[in-house]
Amino acid sequence: MSEHVFSKNYPILNKITEKYDIVIGIEVHCQLASKSKMFSRSKNAYGDAPNSNIDPTCLALPGALPVVNEECIDLALRMGLAVGSTIQKVSVFARKNYFYPDLPKGYQITQYDKPLCFGGSLTLQNKKVVRIERIQLEEDAGKNIHVGTASLVDYNRAGVGLIEIVSCPDMSSPEEASEYLKKLHSYVVNLDISDGDLDRGNFRADANVSLKPKGSSTFGQRCEIKNVNSFKYLEKAIAYEVERQHEIIENGGSISMETRGYDSDKNETYSLRTKENAKDYRYFPEPDLPPLIISNERIERIRSILPELPETKTSRFIETYHLPEYDAKVICASKVNSTYFEKLVSQLKGTCDAKFLANFFMTEVMRAIKIYADTKGISPDELNEVPVSLEHCVSLLKLQANGTISGRIGKEIFEEMISSGKSPNLIVKEKNLIQISDDISIHEICLKVLNENQSQLNDYFQGKEKLFGFFVGQAMKISGGKLNPGKLNERMKEMIESQRNKG
Ligand code: ADP
Ligand code: MG
Questions:
Q1: Which of 124, 146, 155, 456 is the most core-located residue (most Cβ within 10 A)?
Q2: 206 CA → ligand 2 middle, Å
Q3: Counting atoms of ligand 1 from 1, which one is nearest the CA of 27?
């Protein structure tokens, strides 16, 4: 019996999974962050003038020959080792033949039956192991740009290195699929394999989806949803596709193997073409490149310099910074966030402890990140940097730690710092927000509050002790939130008691 998968955000799928198993396999194309292209020496750069990073090889000029870029191989090896793949000592490049204007050679150099890596896996939170079938090297195509009735081609991306990471069909809900994709993304970004920029298409996923009768050991026919470039859309596209296939099957129809696109505005998948077969591509070994031979020494060298994996980093955060597991996981889920957090910790060493900084990060900073990402219409995971000045955060926390401002004013300044970009010091000066800690001022304000609220004071003496918060609140209100809370509490208590004794 296969387990029932609870799909929290897609209740309708729970009904479907009473009778059917959802089967999902994911292919990811990830652009390698190498300095030059996969088989030639043009720059691998985004945003340059069209057709400025080109050369005879990536333009397929007669007589130009490919040469393997060793940096790309090292990056792909890094990925293989990180997910526990078996590295093939001998792998072979292959030609995948098809015609498209963005592919001037008429074929893509990829790998076919002898890829660089076989096997490996990633483990999801529910302990499910998603097996990786293979990781292969290939080259990207150029970009077609349609202007009015004309079509233009930019070959800057043609020949840039990619790895394709193919999972086994081991996922059984949209949430598992997006968790797998997020995890893979955090790997490539943490390991500096790719910038993982989803908006620029540097990390794109194809989801293969099928249904089978619950518990059956035979897979159903799959559809492939191409190039989904957001975690949320991947989930939604799969959920839609499951419902669509379910309806067809329940009405006695059958699924035809096809390649589909996803329209995020309509939240629908739509047919692009019938799925091509391997034989349509006439794969054959690339005659211009020798087999790729990987030595044991090379594997060991890459293994020894493998950057920290997200899981390892999480454990280190728990151990070194004494953070609760939850905090460590939240912060280490993104390299951008964990790097920023570590900078905060190191710059505020001896001033604020790590747990305090983790709280600050997970509330204030992450809220600012979320708001910023929302205005750009993307998910916070997709940002390449924390949109909050580190320098300003450090000065704010220092002002708070040395008592110049209260925590409450700190929150206010943080908001203003984000919206205006001004430094906390300037904001404090302009708005006169320095914390009031001197005994005389605090005494005067307490006195005023007690004098003006005699009836509440009597109630307090009658036993309504909760009113203490009211007196403190009034004092804070009068001072515009600037009183030192510790001192205020202490002084207020003393003065109330002395009035009790007098009365
Ligand atoms: P292709 O290039 O034809 O799409 P690949 O072997 O590259 O073939 O990728 C197949 C992907 O589809 C893999 O991720 C695999 O796990 C997944 N897959 C294979 N069969 C099914 C199925 N019946 N249902 C869902 N996913 C499947
Ligand atoms: Mg495919």
A1: 155
A2: 7
A3: 14
Share of the chain above pLDDT 70, in %: 99
Mean pLDDT over residues 290-308, rounded?
Answer: 95
Ligand number nearest CA of 136 is 1
Is the whole-model pTM more than 0.85? no
Checking if the pLDDT of 4 tops 90, the result is no
Give the CA distances from residue 18 to residues 6, 81, 173, in Å, rounded to whole numbers and listed in that order: 10, 38, 13
Protein residue closest via CA to atom 5 of ligand 1? 166
DSSP 181-231: HHHHHHHHHHTTS----TTTTSEEEEEEEEEEETT-SS----EEEEEE-SH
- To test the pocket of ligand 1, the residue of 165, 208, 216, 222 to mutate (highest count of ligand atoms within 8 Å of its CB) is 208
Query: Which of 266-270, 318-322, 343-347, 477-481 has the weakest average pLDDT?
Result: 477-481
pLDDT tens digits for range 323-351:
999 999 999 988 899 999 999 999 999 99
Q: Is the CB of 60 under 6 A from ligand 1?
A: no
Q: Ligand 1: does its nearest atom lie under 6 Å from the Cβ of 104?
A: no
pLDDT tier, 2 (very low <50, low <70, confident <90, very high otherwise): very low
Domain positions in the chain: 12-302, 439-502
CA distance 158 to 340: 34
* Reported CATH class of domain 439-502: mainly alpha
Amino acid occupying residue 100:
Y
Ligand 1 atom nearest residue 219's Cα: 23
Evaluate: CB of 168 within 6 angstroms of ligand 1. yes
